[in-house]
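Fig. S4 source data, part A: sequence.
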Amino acid sequence: MSNSPRRRLFEGFRLRELRRRVGLSQAAMATRLGISVSYLSQIENNDRPITDIVLVALNREFPLEAFGDAADSSALLRTIDAATDAEVSAERMEEADVRRSLEQQPLLARRMVALHDAWRRSQEQLRVLDDRFDSGSTDAAPLPWEEVRDWFQAEGNYVDAIDLSAEALAADLDADRPLRGLEDRLRWHGVKVVGEDGDGSQLSRFDAKTRRLAINSALPPESRAFLLAHRLVRYEFENEMREVVEGSGLAAPASRELLRLGLANYAAGALLMPYGAFRDTAREVRHDIDRLRQRFGVSFEQACHRLSTLQRPGAAGLPFFFCRVDMAGNITKRHSATRLQFARFGGACPLWVVHEAVAIPDRILVQHAEMPDGTRYVSMAKGLVKPSGSYARPPRRYAVALGCEEMHAADFVYADDLRPGGGATPIGASCRICPRADCDQRAFPPAASAIAIDPDRRSVVPYGFR
């Protein structure tokens, strides 16, 4: 943010239209923005401009709207996050003081943000060491799949060049008959698509010599569409994917091959759920997964995952976290566009609703949860079962979870049944780094803590720590 005077922002009409569109009274909107009703009325009538403090509140509460200058808002939000982080053991600053600091000492503010970023990276490294210790790994070098997973996380799970190309290609396909459109486009590449019976052990097989793509006939339409799209993007976006892999910085051949596969999966999802149309529809239906799934002909999991990738600069979607958990509690897929970070290996907090969802397929569970730093989240979890196609092969059972920070609850349909301001379940990322001293579900004490044992007192957890 520069020291030069900024243009005063008068967008009262747009703010009023937003309030009416989301169905909020002036009192309710004022409460969400942290201002008085009279102040809001003056802004809506363009009697007063939108100040930086109100601008930050707007962009936090309604991230899909992007009020004001994106660069200025981003700088202010990052500085406020650094100055008010509850995990930092120092007195928190008021937002008004943060704004003045950014205006009067921009270099100092940027330095504070950089230090805060470095501290967060050190915390992430602690999580890595914790997970490696927990998994029994002594190899300092990350495994290929870990490297690729971390690469996607560092990119915000959004790959601009591929996403833009997928959106353009989707516009050329037959939107009314997506499966036929994909098959026709593959035929243009000389690929013949056929059905194939099987025991479910293989979803598809491609013969490079005959250019014949055989897809398991027992698969549902959404799985068939994804496999067709996955094969198609390998032809259509070959150059884009090669450039991304070459610029990834991954040196190991296995890591580069896994990244290439991951990019094809990403591109297939982007093709079936084009960015602009998917983001606008998600906003319209308040991120109702079933309505999105039906509208775009995709699976429940695919729609959840796509919502976590909507991070296009200047047109970002609601910031979500997404993960997939198996029956043993292992996190097999994860991404977070929020402050919430998952354990990199093994199980998440046992109090998280996703573990219960695994055992209850085809039922949506909703949870209001609070992290140790005080940040609250609304999450939805659903248990899923994928048939194997054969009695001899057990079906795959797992659960997916999708969630956002409490401040975005009004745009998340699953939060409607929760009582505003009600109690939240205290959860954490991992027992080894969770500071909660009163958790009955604790599996082991946090790393680097001193254990305190009182032989004359017995509680659920047989030790304390400090």
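Fig. S4 source data, part B ends here. The chain is about 45% helix and 15% strand.
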